């Protein structure tokens, strides 16, 4: 396993290094293109042609004013996203010794990320490719999903209520020595998604203590987890990955709510920069459309009034405006769709078949199931080896339905507010950061669909209303 991962990373180093160099150089290219467009429209057309040659001062002044009306917001948003990507890219803190992180494969390596950028599409506990990233012919992998037990219906007799037999409860332990912890019995051999709980017993994890910030996860009411209840693990950064974070190979770091690596804006587009990226593509689309309309009109007018050929720079500027206008409009439309669906670009690669596994806090865990008892699913107390001052909490391990996005809110406007802000001015001004950065709700990493969580709690046998709104 370690050899396979190391080989894959080495093979990608050249490509990732090239992407980083392109990202560092591209802002200068964008500045040159914007400067060229400004010179053509403002100097060559408005000043030399309209004002000095045609003596149409009003037309030239209005054209210049409208140009900067569209140009300045685009520049402001672009500079804002560059600043954010450079100063606050949204990296997840690494573990203490990331160089030794490859040893932590015993924790259970997650296949949920497109670890090599956007080169391979993966889903939770299923993949379009094998461990080497080679895509198979099967478009959708077969998922081994244990369906939740049926919920007891009101009015049914106790004997008619199906009894779940897939319940495993690891009892809480107090602060104790490592020797005592190793003497703990393993959990049952019941399986979930093909993983045996015995594969994650205390003895195999004795040499791999949980990160210092484990309670950042176990203190929440809902988070994305592995079959053993632990959060997703990044063996590159030697850390737990918060919900929706992914490892970006170009920068070799896990990033909060990673979207994609974009050389055009100089680096990684993620939680802290996504709002400004959206503003860049929207303002860029309007800016390019204005250039296309203005340049096309004056080229046509010049041919009608003077005949012959026009300045080559006018035609080159029109061609570049069409090219970048098509790109900007496409990105603006696709990004709007992602915000509406509350998806990142990484998530969208497999969102129709993805199944999320969630750990939901149960503040009142039931005893082992009996006649007429609540339907039960797998439960585990975490952290397994609490340190002094840490309190283990019980979590039920549940699955969403295939293609179900737990972060898509019912109200379409709320999905936009979560990214762009709660004021209309925040939507258009590239000043305040996205509400995503603040993580206002401490019970989950990001706001989740309350109806979906309530349904999963009911299926897991958790008393509804016992967990705060998520």
Write the layout of secondary structure elements.
Blueprint: H1 2-53, H2 57-87, E1 122-123, E2 126-127, H3 178-182, E3 191-192, E4 195-196, H4 202-205, H5 215-218, E5 222-224, E6 232-234, E7 239-241, E8 246-248, E9 253-255, E10 260-262, E11 267-269, H6 274-306, H7 312-341, H8 345-348, E12 357-361, E13 379-382, E14 393-399, H9 412-420, H10 424-428, H11 435-438, H12 450-460
One letter per element, helices H and strands E, the order comes to HHEEHEEHHEEEEEEEHHHEEEHHHH
Q: Helicity range of the residues?
A: 40-55%
How many structural domains?
A: 2
**C-alpha-based Rg, rounded:** 27 Å
Range of strand content: 5-15%
Which parts are unreliable, with pLDDT below 50 for 5 consecutive residues or more? Answer: 1-11, 101-168, 170-207
